[in-house]
Design brief:
The chain is α/β, with parallel strands linked by helices. The protein has one domain: Alpha/Beta hydrolase fold, catalytic domain (Rossmann fold), CATH 3.40.50.1820. It has 6 helices and 6 strands, in the order βαβααβαββαβα. The chain has a 6-stranded parallel sheet with strand order 2-1-3-4-5-6, with helices on both faces. Strand 5, helix 5 and strand 6 form a beta-alpha-beta unit. The two termini are about 30 Å apart.
Protein backbone atom coordinates (compact mmCIF):
# COMPACT_ATOMS: atom_id res chain seq x y z
CA UNK A 1 0.00 0.00 0.00
CA UNK A 2 1.25 3.44 -0.88
CA UNK A 3 0.03 6.14 1.48
CA UNK A 4 1.33 8.81 -0.87
CA UNK A 5 -0.84 7.85 -3.82
CA UNK A 6 -2.29 10.77 -5.74
CA UNK A 7 -5.84 11.58 -4.69
CA UNK A 8 -8.63 12.78 -6.98
CA UNK A 9 -10.22 16.16 -6.41
CA UNK A 10 -12.78 16.22 -3.61
CA UNK A 11 -16.30 15.63 -4.88
CA UNK A 12 -19.66 16.93 -3.74
CA UNK A 13 -20.11 14.95 -0.53
CA UNK A 14 -18.39 14.22 2.74
CA UNK A 15 -19.19 12.43 5.98
CA UNK A 16 -19.23 13.70 9.51
CA UNK A 17 -17.43 10.54 10.67
CA UNK A 18 -15.64 7.57 9.15
CA UNK A 19 -15.48 4.49 11.38
CA UNK A 20 -13.07 1.64 10.69
CA UNK A 21 -14.15 -1.88 11.66
CA UNK A 22 -11.31 -4.38 11.48
CA UNK A 23 -11.32 -8.13 11.11
CA UNK A 24 -10.79 -10.76 13.78
CA UNK A 25 -7.02 -10.48 13.26
CA UNK A 26 -6.95 -6.83 14.38
CA UNK A 27 -4.50 -5.16 15.11
CA UNK A 28 -2.97 -6.86 12.07
CA UNK A 29 -5.31 -4.59 10.07
CA UNK A 30 -3.66 -1.41 11.32
CA UNK A 31 -1.53 -0.76 8.20
CA UNK A 32 -4.73 -0.83 6.11
CA UNK A 33 -6.52 1.30 8.70
CA UNK A 34 -3.72 3.88 8.57
CA UNK A 35 -3.67 3.91 4.78
CA UNK A 36 -7.43 4.47 4.67
CA UNK A 37 -7.24 7.23 7.26
CA UNK A 38 -4.62 9.00 5.16
CA UNK A 39 -6.32 8.40 1.83
CA UNK A 40 -9.83 9.42 2.91
CA UNK A 41 -9.01 12.21 5.39
CA UNK A 42 -10.49 14.97 3.26
CA UNK A 43 -13.83 13.15 2.90
CA UNK A 44 -14.69 13.16 6.61
CA UNK A 45 -14.42 15.39 9.66
CA UNK A 46 -13.55 12.60 12.10
CA UNK A 47 -11.82 9.24 11.67
CA UNK A 48 -12.61 6.75 14.43
CA UNK A 49 -10.32 3.74 14.42
CA UNK A 50 -11.12 0.23 15.58
CA UNK A 51 -9.06 0.60 18.76
CA UNK A 52 -11.08 3.63 19.82
CA UNK A 53 -14.26 1.53 19.79
CA UNK A 54 -12.56 -1.36 21.55
CA UNK A 55 -11.29 0.95 24.29
CA UNK A 56 -14.70 2.57 24.69
CA UNK A 57 -16.87 -0.55 24.76
CA UNK A 58 -14.78 -3.71 25.13
CA UNK A 59 -11.93 -3.02 27.58
CA UNK A 60 -9.51 -2.54 24.71
CA UNK A 61 -9.85 -6.07 23.34
CA UNK A 62 -11.53 -7.71 20.38
CA UNK A 63 -14.94 -9.06 21.40
CA UNK A 64 -17.70 -11.23 19.98
CA UNK A 65 -20.06 -8.48 21.19
CA UNK A 66 -18.69 -5.82 18.86
CA UNK A 67 -22.18 -5.39 17.40
CA UNK A 68 -23.32 -4.04 20.78
CA UNK A 69 -20.50 -1.51 20.85
CA UNK A 70 -21.18 -0.43 17.27
CA UNK A 71 -24.89 0.03 18.00
CA UNK A 72 -24.05 2.19 21.01
CA UNK A 73 -21.61 4.26 18.97
CA UNK A 74 -24.14 4.83 16.19
CA UNK A 75 -26.72 5.81 18.80
CA UNK A 76 -24.46 8.66 19.88
CA UNK A 77 -23.17 7.08 23.07
CA UNK A 78 -19.42 7.56 22.77
CA UNK A 79 -16.76 8.74 20.35
CA UNK A 80 -18.82 9.03 17.14
CA UNK A 81 -20.28 12.56 16.88
CA UNK A 82 -23.73 13.29 15.43
CA UNK A 83 -24.18 13.29 11.65
CA UNK A 84 -23.69 10.92 8.71
CA UNK A 85 -21.34 8.00 9.27
CA UNK A 86 -19.36 5.91 6.79
CA UNK A 87 -18.42 2.41 7.92
CA UNK A 88 -15.19 1.19 6.31
CA UNK A 89 -14.51 -2.42 7.15
CA UNK A 90 -12.33 -5.45 6.55
CA UNK A 91 -13.22 -9.16 6.78
CA UNK A 92 -15.47 -9.84 9.79
CA UNK A 93 -15.87 -6.09 10.19
CA UNK A 94 -17.69 -6.14 6.85
CA UNK A 95 -20.30 -8.54 8.23
CA UNK A 96 -20.65 -6.39 11.34
CA UNK A 97 -21.14 -3.22 9.28
CA UNK A 98 -23.63 -4.65 6.81
CA UNK A 99 -25.66 -6.48 9.46
CA UNK A 100 -25.98 -3.24 11.41
CA UNK A 101 -27.17 -1.38 8.30
CA UNK A 102 -29.59 -4.15 7.32
CA UNK A 103 -31.12 -4.05 10.80
CA UNK A 104 -31.40 -0.26 10.97
CA UNK A 105 -29.67 2.08 8.53
CA UNK A 106 -30.09 5.09 10.81
CA UNK A 107 -27.31 7.55 10.11
CA UNK A 108 -25.11 5.10 8.20
CA UNK A 109 -24.60 6.96 4.92
CA UNK A 110 -22.38 4.41 3.16
CA UNK A 111 -20.39 1.22 3.70
CA UNK A 112 -17.09 0.13 2.21
CA UNK A 113 -16.15 -3.54 2.58
CA UNK A 114 -12.64 -4.84 1.96
CA UNK A 115 -12.30 -8.64 1.68
CA UNK A 116 -15.83 -9.64 2.62
CA UNK A 117 -15.77 -13.13 4.21
CA UNK A 118 -18.58 -14.76 2.25
CA UNK A 119 -17.54 -18.26 3.26
CA UNK A 120 -15.00 -19.75 5.62
CA UNK A 121 -12.65 -21.96 3.57
CA UNK A 122 -12.87 -24.78 6.15
CA UNK A 123 -16.58 -24.67 7.06
CA UNK A 124 -19.91 -25.37 5.36
CA UNK A 125 -21.89 -22.33 4.19
CA UNK A 126 -22.96 -19.98 7.00
CA UNK A 127 -25.98 -17.98 5.75
CA UNK A 128 -25.66 -15.40 8.53
CA UNK A 129 -22.59 -14.12 6.74
CA UNK A 130 -24.42 -13.04 3.59
CA UNK A 131 -28.24 -13.40 3.50
CA UNK A 132 -28.77 -9.90 4.87
CA UNK A 133 -26.92 -8.38 1.89
CA UNK A 134 -30.11 -8.83 -0.14
CA UNK A 135 -31.88 -6.41 2.24
CA UNK A 136 -29.36 -3.59 2.27
CA UNK A 137 -30.59 -0.11 1.37
CA UNK A 138 -27.39 1.74 2.30
CA UNK A 139 -24.98 2.31 -0.62
CA UNK A 140 -22.31 -0.36 -0.21
CA UNK A 141 -19.06 -1.00 -2.06
CA UNK A 142 -17.46 -4.44 -1.76
CA UNK A 143 -13.85 -4.74 -2.94
CA UNK A 144 -13.07 -8.43 -3.29
CA UNK A 145 -9.73 -10.00 -4.15
CA UNK A 146 -9.33 -12.42 -7.02
CA UNK A 147 -7.25 -14.61 -4.68
CA UNK A 148 -9.42 -14.28 -1.59
CA UNK A 149 -10.00 -17.75 -0.09
CA UNK A 150 -13.11 -16.40 1.67
CA UNK A 151 -14.66 -15.70 -1.73
CA UNK A 152 -12.99 -14.54 -4.93
CA UNK A 153 -14.30 -13.09 -8.17
CA UNK A 154 -17.08 -15.69 -8.26
CA UNK A 155 -18.93 -13.95 -5.40
CA UNK A 156 -20.32 -11.45 -7.89
CA UNK A 157 -22.49 -14.23 -9.38
CA UNK A 158 -22.85 -16.70 -6.49
CA UNK A 159 -24.55 -14.45 -3.91
CA UNK A 160 -27.75 -12.43 -4.02
CA UNK A 161 -27.30 -8.81 -3.02
CA UNK A 162 -29.54 -5.75 -3.21
CA UNK A 163 -29.23 -3.02 -5.82
CA UNK A 164 -27.51 -0.90 -3.17
CA UNK A 165 -24.41 -3.12 -3.39
CA UNK A 166 -21.60 -2.56 -5.89
CA UNK A 167 -18.80 -5.09 -6.42
CA UNK A 168 -15.26 -4.28 -7.50
CA UNK A 169 -12.80 -7.14 -8.01
CA UNK A 170 -9.12 -6.36 -7.41
CA UNK A 171 -5.87 -8.33 -7.60
CA UNK A 172 -5.31 -9.25 -3.96
CA UNK A 173 -5.98 -11.90 -1.30
CA UNK A 174 -7.92 -11.93 1.97
CA UNK A 175 -5.04 -10.23 3.79
CA UNK A 176 -5.14 -7.45 1.18
CA UNK A 177 -1.56 -7.98 0.08
CA UNK A 178 -1.31 -6.03 -3.15
CA UNK A 179 1.00 -3.92 -5.24
CA UNK A 180 1.16 -0.14 -4.75
CA UNK A 181 -0.50 0.28 -8.15
CA UNK A 182 -3.40 -1.98 -7.17
CA UNK A 183 -3.83 -0.13 -3.86
CA UNK A 184 -3.86 3.20 -5.70
CA UNK A 185 -6.62 1.92 -7.97
CA UNK A 186 -8.56 0.55 -4.99
CA UNK A 187 -8.30 3.84 -3.12
CA UNK A 188 -9.46 5.77 -6.18
CA UNK A 189 -12.46 3.43 -6.47
CA UNK A 190 -13.35 3.98 -2.81
CA UNK A 191 -13.03 7.74 -3.09
CA UNK A 192 -15.13 7.94 -6.25
CA UNK A 193 -17.80 5.76 -4.65
CA UNK A 194 -17.99 7.91 -1.52
CA UNK A 195 -17.95 11.15 -3.47
CA UNK A 196 -20.89 9.88 -5.46
CA UNK A 197 -23.10 8.77 -2.57
CA UNK A 198 -22.35 11.08 0.35
CA UNK A 199 -24.73 14.00 0.88
CA UNK A 200 -23.65 17.54 0.12
CA UNK A 201 -22.99 19.59 3.20
CA UNK A 202 -22.89 16.59 5.55
Amino acid sequence: MDNNSAQPTVGRGRARSLVFLGGDSYPADRPMENALQHGLADLCDHFIGQQVLLDQYHNGRMSRLRSVGLAAALAGDGPVPPGPVVLVSRSSGCVLATQAAAKEAGRIAAIVCLAYPFRHPERPPEPDRFLHLARLTVPTLILQGTRDNYGGAEVTRDYSVSNAVTFQVIDTDHELRMSPATWSEALTTIRQFLQGVLPTGA
